[in-house]
Please model this.
Amino acid sequence: MLRRGFFRPRRGFTTIEALIAAVVFLLGLSGLLGALTQARNATGQARRYMQATDIANDLLEQIQLWPATDTRLTPTTAGVCKDDPLDKVGALSQPKGSAAYSAYAACLRSDADLKASGRSWAGLTNPTFMDELGSQGTPTQYERYYMILSKEVRENVQWLQIWVKVRYEDPDGVRVVTVQGMRVVM
Model:
């Protein structure tokens, strides 16, 4: 009969086991870092969208406060805007030099129209916000546009449909936020 030697159970891990455990841990950690980066980007995108919506609502509320005789309330009577107030073709999302952008922007009113001829303006004066990096980052510049469409409801009663659009650059491309309001003028 063969004699068995004294068998001692080993304690600890072998080098291969430790190396495999380290690789598995690093793979899990890299997945977690990727998810955190994606979450940060999504948060920044949501913040810019929310700021654009706030800017559009601010302008819409200011327009609601203008007196009925204000010339800034003159309805848009012609152009691409009247036929497509929602901008279904995405003209404002095109590069600024493109024909589609130029044609659509020509029938909209912009920041220059808000304060023209020394008119009062109590809304947001400079629609620029810093990104999540603060002073080290680049500011997001928002461009405001509006148009007014009119419909005569009955004699001496006009229904104004107010469209406000805010355009801004996002890392994924140009974004446009649109809000709409109504006003009755008698």
User: Anything to note?
Assistant: The mean pLDDT is 86. The radius of gyration is 29 Å. The CA atoms of residues 113 and 156 lie 26 Å apart.
